[in-house]
Predict the structure.
Amino acid sequence: VESKITNKSRWDSINFLEKLFLTWVYPLFWKGWRTESLSYEHLSRCSKDDEALVVVQQLESNWDIERRKRNPKFWWALLKTFGLQFIIPVTIFGTGECIVRIGQPLLLGFVLDYFRGANHMSYQHACMAAGGIVVCSALYITLHHPCLMRNLQVGMRLRNACTTLMYQKCLKLSQSSLAKTTVG
């Protein structure tokens, strides 16, 4: 099947900071804002890692290894294929949530203590606590959005690989076995 989108993937050629701050989509937004509508010439292909053929081959090879075992489990094949891609962003996200979400209220409490005058806190300590609130907010934004996007990417790959494997299995089924089974 010939694709209407011929431009190479921008995701494969950008640096770490562009991926982190999602600045690679700004030229597309700018083109969409300046023109009436976007067309296929403005779009780029998906990343090589997101192509169905690559993802399905990885899952299929892990599933073939798992099927040779005595009690094969499909979720083990999924975990071997996508586990590391999923665990790293979740770990970063979870650690950031624990540090930032707990740190912000504590720092806000220090600032409020300064204004209440209850704790004899100095002006410099209150300013450092206020700066810490800003740093926590910046950390949250910097960690949350890229990790969320990465998890959505991995979920898309997982869904794509599973549905492609099911489709391939359906194509292999014989017509007689299809006549014997019901949809539900």
Q: What stands out?
A: The chain has two domains: 1-45, 50-180.
